[in-house]
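Hi, can you check this record?
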Amino acid sequence: MPVMTKKIKISSGEGTEITNITEQVQELVNSSGLKEGIANVFVIGSTASVSTIEFEPNLVNDMKAALERLVPSDIKYAHTKTWAMIMEKPCDRDIDGS
């Protein structure tokens, strides 16, 4: 079975964002020339995710509100300190920030 790798670039800001990528994925599948197979969609990053929900405005708002209750954006997280150290001098530090 043939394997193809394609990329979609999504730009996002800070905070909770929910982005509908259905059209981009469908376009890549259609342009692949494949008639059957599996489209595997994933994201690289510890604070990003891929999920499937109906992209309906009120459901998107409900999901954002649920995520805000689960992981509030107005508190400090240790993970943020790690990235601040890495971004400060990325070549001078190990992955653990030391």
